[in-house]
Amino acid sequence: MDMIDLINKKKYGQKLTNEEISFIIKGYTKGIIPDYQMSSFLMAVYFNGMDATESTSLAMAMRDSGEVLDLKDIKGTKVDKHSTGGVGDKVSLVLAPLVAYLGAKLAKMSGRGLGHTGGTIDKLESIPGFKVELPLNQFKDQVNQIGCAIVGQSGDIAPADKKIYALRDVTATVDSMPLIASSIMSKKLASGADAIVLDVKVGSGAFMKTKEDAMSLSRLMVDIGKQAGKQVTAILTSMEEPLGHKIGNALEVYESIETLEGHGPKDLTEVVSVITGHLLKAAGIVESFEAGYELSKTTLAEGKAVDKFYEFVGAQGGDVAFIKNKKNLLGNTKRHEIVATSSGYLEKVDALNFGIAAMKLGAGRMTKEDKIDLFVGLDLKKKIGDEVKIGEVICILHHQDKGLKDAIELIEKSYVIGSEKRELKLIEETIV
Ligand code: URA
């Protein structure tokens, strides 16, 4: 096989075989295929696409470039979820102890935040002592014993994706549907779960800005997962406004505990319950999605899973006493209030601006090397559809002076107050 022939094949829009895709990924991972040929190939894929079979071959070849977790020592159906990234997205922190409490097994690898989106691992690190790296045996034992564990993604998972993603970043080939879908799915398939729910965010604060793109990505990822023998469901959830009220690492842990205690925000509770419904059904714990959804809602409302969260934190070395006194998670930050400049109903916000503002305050990173401040962030006092009165506080910035001026500017221009009450559609579609 010759890389030039394969680049030509894709350049003319032809379909590549499994063997050809595997040749490219193996060759590139080993350094036999140089960056300039891979760049040319990626651009050919960008323009001519790949169908579901080719995308599956690509995802599997990238999965097989490194370690594929063997979770068969964990009894029962292993479940996992993945979010394409949003602002204030703390779903995993609530979902992990909740599904574990309800009898499922969740063995999860999560990422760090980059740019305007946060990462579960950074959020967990705002709990003193919490270990985000565990030896594989300990990770599996913990899931067997308490039902859940969340660790950072090991460097050995899908190394081909890491190398290709870095190249895509500098060759303007990130925003290609088959490349995004196979990149995400290669890591999910390597993480060893049997059933996966993909939370595909759509809207200004998300990677996918339109419903059409989010649907195409979802369908392709579900296809890849199914062809790889997994049970996969995708849900399209709105990222027109941040999820919940709090954005920032420790602040999001605070809100997750509130949700597990039974008084969390409506939108967060809803997204968690929809994902839980699908996962419990896939794990055979309930007969139907509806039963799992209702079980999630009542369990959250009754605050029954909060002790499972403390058990999970304790098992990974986190200081449970520290988080039980929730106000510790508010830190010693300074506060700046943003007030409404007119009365009416909150009609629109710019979710992306909230993510960028949190990053400017220090809650997120511009580059992988940046250090973050675990306690800064935003607290949204109003959500879309809420009534607002002139002079009322609509958002509180938790800050340490850094980036404050930029953040205020971004937040002030993010609010649109109108005269009609608007209902935001949170769950846009379910793709199975
Ligand atoms: N997330 C990934 O893991 N890969 C992509 O290509 C895009 C988002």
Automatic annotation (TrEMBL):
GO biological process: pyrimidine nucleobase metabolic process; pyrimidine nucleoside metabolic process
PROSITE patterns: THYMID_PHOSPHORYLASE (PS00647)
Entry GO CC: cytosol
Signal peptide range in chain numbering: none
Domain Pyrimidine nucleoside phosphorylase C-terminal intervals: 345-418
UniProt keyword list: Glycosyltransferase, Transferase
NCBIfam families cross-referenced by the UniProt entry: PRK05820.1, Y_phosphoryl
Description of how the protein assembles with itself and partners: Homodimer.
Protein name listed in UniProt: Pyrimidine-nucleoside phosphorylase
Species assigned in the record: Acholeplasma oculi
